[in-house]
Amino acid sequence: MNSQHAPLPDGTRAAVPAPCVPQPDPLSVLLRTGPFSEALRVAIQNRGLSLSRLQERLKQGGAPITTATISAWQSGKYRPERPHALRALEALEKVLNLPARALSSLLAPPKPRGRHLNGAAGRPSLAEAWAGVLNDALEAVDTRWTAHLTCVSRHQRIDVDARGGEHMLWSRQVLRAETDGPDRYIISYQADQPGPAPVLRPSTPRRVGASLDDPAHGILVAELLFDRPLSRGETVIVEYVLEHVGTRPTAQRAGLYLQVPVRECVIEVRFDAAALPTSCHAFHVPHASADIRERMLWLGADHCVHTVGLDLPPSYFGIRWSWDDR
Q: Span 243-253, mean pLDDT?
């Protein structure tokens, strides 16, 4: 250890220990880096409760689990994957005085079990669905569950203002879990031109996790966190609004990069009466294909157009429009 020397009355100098630099709490480090088993073991050790006492607390809280299971978790032999185990882990975090999801966030996706749990096989990643456009932005969010959610139905509407700018995007979809564990949905958005990201206003679920906006490319990605992890076959409704409160980017298309199959997809565009397009076309581009399928759309008296896709595979699907004088 380095030391300093303080003068004594006789002129000699006595060694004075240098001040110690505080070391980070081991548990705090483990909760950031993992692994899960080690973080759980240290958290239990810090709490000073025996496994039997933990079991009793969990039972009282309505989340019964055996001491053998807790022991297997902290040894790394097993990890919580099933819905009842994940609920017990949530209760365990409370008993150990840890922040919500402090331990569950360290879990990797569950290991596949059986033919029903391979619903993500063959589906592109979210980055691949976006053709690499969002690669850097997606590093800021947890995309491990996106391919495990099938879209039963999706309805998206865009409002275009009198100057041809995108005012608001509303989205509502019903998702079904293809495996146990999905706990979030990733919103991914890119404007037709650079500019400030829109403001996210979630309706359900209301909790927002990690997010990133990139004004240089007009990109926004964000996590919407479910109330709890879903069980396989369970459905959830996701609804939100993206509103441009300042600069509104000029809009020329309303498109969706579909990472997973969609049974029913509706895209609607509402135009201001002062900025009606001269032409509108629906388009569909299957994933990893150059085959662009288009058809003309007719603007209604209400200044709206829409397109409907049924049983769509992973693809790029939407509406494009143009103005002769823009």
A: 86
